[in-house]
Amino acid sequence: MITGTGRAVPAYAMPNADFAAIGIDTSDEWIRERTGIRQRYIARDGETCVSLAADASRQAMARAGVAPEDIDLIVFGTCSPDKLLPASGVELQAQIGAVNASAFDLNAACTSFVYGVSVAEGFIAAESARTVLVIGAEKLSGIINWKDRNTCVLFGDGAGAAIMQRAQGGKGVVSRFMRSDGHLASLLYRPKGGSAEPVTPEILAEGSHLVAMAGRETFKHAVRSMNEALDRALADAGLTGDDIDLLIPHQANLRIIEATAKHGHMPMDKVFVNVDRYGNTSAGSVPIALDEAMQSGRIQPGMKVMLVAFGAGFTWASAIHQF
Ligand code: UT7
Q: pTM (2 decimals)?
């Protein structure tokens, strides 16, 4: 079960109006109408994926009453790690002093945190770990193409973290679902710059090492996969949308969130939305929203909360948590 959460974003909030200053042919109206986004946070001055994750982790540990040395496992969800080697999980381990932990990165893109919750739950159930730190953190500003208006207006930087421990008194994850489909990989990916095609001056010039997305196709699959993830976790738990007190969906686009809520017959007042303030923070999205919901009192003991996400890969997943 989740016993503490935290979140961190960079200091600089970039409003839609600021894209004009960097030569992007877009407008506040277009971005708000098509996505619901008003601003996003962008890292500067030494803020990194790992430093944001460390800030979020310290909050989660304090709220769970857990010391760094109590952590057995760190599952670090990200697709924009500080370095490609070593894993950001071990860099985080060093920064927070989790000296007794093992750590690895998990890349399911925007679905990473929800995958991470299932992975943590599995380790705890198998008694291979007692206290797990699950992170979703990104510095997407370092991997997006700042000349591509199809993508650069959508994404933001930020991190969320959760401490997970053994379930008690019927609390904890009551159902979960994970899927992926690699046939859809080229709809949202970084075409080059990996070990198959290492970076060359030509790749750098054309920007093919940066995120590229087929927006409309991604949108279609996003709605379909979020719906499936929602249905499968509900069915597995023997619940309906009525039983869920709060839905925390991946914050990519307000229209996708609304379509998911409608599919689940959930009124929007039972759906957590913060895409307007953060944009799409990929792996950071669900845990940032989860922490905002916890700290603002939207999550109370006894509530059933559903996490649902989709992302590049494609990947999609859900989890229902009894608080
Ligand atoms: O975490 C997973 C990540 N990805 C997603 O969830 C993204 C899913 N897709 C979407 O959210 C939407 O498809 C977008 C927000 C990316 C785009 O919205 P859309 O309603 O699907 O627009 P579109 O791509 O069909 O483009 C419509 C028009 C095009 O112009 P033409 O060809 O109709 O003349 C685009 O060139 O909007 C144009 N456009 C823009 N105009 C102003 C695309 N980006 C922009 C922009 N500003 N930033």
A: 0.97
